[in-house]
Amino acid sequence: MEVLKNYINGSWIESKEQGTIDVVNPANQEVLAKVPYGEKTVEDAAMAIDAAAEALKEWRNVPVMRRVQPLYKLKTLIEENIDEIAKLITLECGKSYAESAAEMQRGIENIETACATPTLLQSEFSENVATGIDEFMIRQPIGVCACIAPFNFPGMIPFWFLPYALACGNSFILKPSEKVPLTMMKVFELIDQLDLPKGLINLVHGGKECVDKLLDDPQVKAISFVGSTPVARYIYQRGAANGKRVQAQGGAKNPVIVMPDADVDMAANIIADSVYGCAGQRCLAASNIIAIGDTNGAIKEALVEKAKSKVTGFGLDEGVDMGPVITAESKSRIENIIAQGVAEGAEVLLDGRNASISGFEHGNFLTPTILENVALDGEVINTEIFGPVMSLLNMDSIEQAVDFVNSNNFGNMACLFTSSGRNARTFRNQANAGNIGINIGVAAPMAQFPFSGWNDSFFGDLHGQGRHAIEFFTQTKVVIERWPKEWTRKF
Ligand code: NAD
Fold first, then answer.
1. E-strand spans in 40-132?
2. Which of 227, 232, 238, 279 is the right S-S partner for 250, CB 3.0 to 4.6 Å?
3. Which helix (H) or strand (E) holds 186?
4. Considering only CA atoms, which of 327, 315, 399, 387 is closest in space to residue 351?
């Protein structure tokens, strides 16, 4: 079985680490590859950091218009290979082929947005801040940047950072999730075709040891992390204590409110897609659904119907809406949370436990689950489940619902379904979340906007994507200049 190599200094090289863990197809437990995992991955990370530091010396002075040229080529290469990449995403991550291709398209859109870096990097200039004195601000690269990625979007999430870091004049190290390293292996085969300076973009495998090296080495200046909240908090604290710039995106628990004036059928359709898309393994998956007043009965009926219509199965099979969850441990964790909810008094309207998919009996499948009368202070309502589970709540007013939304520790997304502009305005103004959806179920910012988590969903200041990424991957330098008239020479 193949042990995955690292891509360091422009070459594919074997890890110093002998220990490995399996990369597993969650639909059938087939072992797809082995990925280096253990203490010696620190040595791999050290090599990648040195290579990136060396590459930086020249790259930072390459004109920005030339720095974006490889991105145009990379976009084309990914587009040409999107079918193969999407199939890889499905094989190692489980989601449906359509979801995998859509995820990669979001990655491409970030490459396209980063191609605007020459304009986005334009500086500010003030003439005569005092007589004969001009002042301006330039943005310079921050240095060696590292990204630590989660399992749930193996194709998209590295591109929230990589193209911007590169276009801004930095070098880059990617540590993909050990659960889904194959997608980026394919993408790095394409990156290898770009004729970039050696060491400019590197890929290292591993887990905590490898990450800690990236967090501790003084040559690394910026860390972009996406993953669960406990790890995001740790990454932020350790990276910041070492003087690095850190953006750490964490977990979520996303509420959706349905007003009595909402279009119930439209809302149910969109909410079911939000809860069950990617088998609920999205940081923007809707989870707690709050029906206001007497809309409860209608929305409940519509949601149960939509949930029942979802086809669960192997993501490469035709007509499948929902694949498995990532690991067997994850499946049993989700089943335990449902059981805990029931123990706390919840009623099960639709039970997705004990799912069995013909031909994939060993896969980590759950089918859509809906709970109601869930304890407000219980685990189901307050824990990120990261599985295809919906909790249905009923409240009296938008005010009560917004209080509930704002009592949550997370703040990744909150959505409202309504036909009233006034309700929409109140909600957008008062909800404590960084991404707001009005009649939208997955309020995922397009590449030109920041991915704006709040509270325990984000640690740091500048988010991924768009203009925020340009600011994150550069440091400002303010120059004040005086050129006295007396020095004017005649030629
Ligand atoms: P995770 O936190 O388990 O792992 C993320 C990365 O951190 C992996 O590369 C892993 O190797 C590394 N890691 C894990 N434990 C570590 C430790 N103790 N020290 C150092 N590094 C460590 O997350 P996951 O399970 O891969 O991803 C799912 C989570 O990511 C969910 O909570 C989801 O909400 C979140 N997520 C958030 C966003 C967002 O934008 N806020 C987007 C996608 C996913």
1. 124-130
2. 232
3. helix 182-191
4. 387
Mutate to test the pocket of ligand 1, among 106, 231, 409, 462 (most ligand atoms within 8 A of CB): 231
Q: Which two tokens stand for residue 462?
A: 């500048």
Question: 432-456 pLDDT, tens per residue?
Answer: 999 999 999 999 999 999 999 999 9
> Who has greater pLDDT, 491 or 409?
409
Q: Decide: 327 in ligand 1 pocket, CB within 6 A.
A: no
Neighbour-count burial of 73, counting CB atoms closer than 10 A to its CB (0-12 exposed, 13-18 middle, 19+ buried): middle
Residue carrying structure tokens 């704002």: 406
Determine the distance from the C-alpha atom of residue 1 to the mean position of all C-alpha atoms in its chain, rounded to a whole number.
Answer: 30
Ligand 1 pocket, mutate which of 283, 327, 408 (most atoms under 8 A from CB): 283
Domains, the chain, with CATH or none:
6-250+457-478 (3.40.605.10), 254-438 (3.40.309.10)
Q: Alpha-carbon distance 460 to 449, whole Å?
A: 17
Tens-digit pLDDT profile for residues 195-247: 999 999 999 999 999 999 999 999 999 999 999 999 999 999 999 999 999 99
Question: 171 CA to middle of ligand 1, Å?
Answer: 23
Decide whether any atom of ligand 1 lies within 6 Å of the 210 Cβ.
no
Please give the order of strands across the beta sheet that includes 474-482: 124-130, 133-141, 474-482
